[in-house]
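Example (one chain per record):
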Amino acid sequence: MTNTVNLPGGTALPVIGFGTWELRRKQAYESVRAALEIGYRHLDTATLYRNEADVGSAVKDSGVDREQIFITTKLHPRDARHARRALETSLDQLGTGYVDLWLIHWPTGRDELVPTWRELLAAKSEGLARNVGVSNYGMDEIDLITEATGEQPSVNQISWSPARHDPDRLEEHRRRGIVVEGYSGLLNTDLRDPVLAEIAERHGVTPAQVVLRWHLEHDIVILPRSSKRERIASNFDLTGFNLTNDDITAIDTL
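Predicted structure:
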């Protein structure tokens, strides 16, 4: 299993990221510090999460070189008409001169899709964001902004889990060369499912680890979130076992 996937511009994106949704203030700071100590090098935040300053402080205090950490933040669609100002605020909160990935958190109104995408591309041209992408976009919206500008998103971050597994949708992204990041994979899964329990017991791991590893087998970047250090560690510890093809097929059909 590879630890990174290359984005179109050549940036290495770590396939295991640390999500920070609903983590605030001290909890966000301590969780990010723990994640970096454990070995995470990919952090995911957003203007909406209101924790960018906490994430930035944790990065600064971690002792890990900023260049070694892949940081994503997201533009709230309500800020689309002053996107540049919103990004500058995010950079100020994070205490960094650039983000590795800037996403539009979910689609704006249809008339603003292309202008907003142009704002993200301008930020990339200026070096404020090394890569740009989208979140919660459908393929029609991705094709619309790509055809209008000649540049497609590097990433689409979408809800993904065994229950929401859609091979056709995955293939549509692959065909376009767009990396899929999956969020809420554990939240949207019944971890007590007997299929997961059997697979986990056989491999000597937890059902959560099975689900996260299943994402990676499908080349989906994951963003598990926890405020508990032992859970943060186990969510990162996914290389000591291998799912069989039968395991993967069984999870695909949950």
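Caption: The chain has a mean pLDDT of 97.
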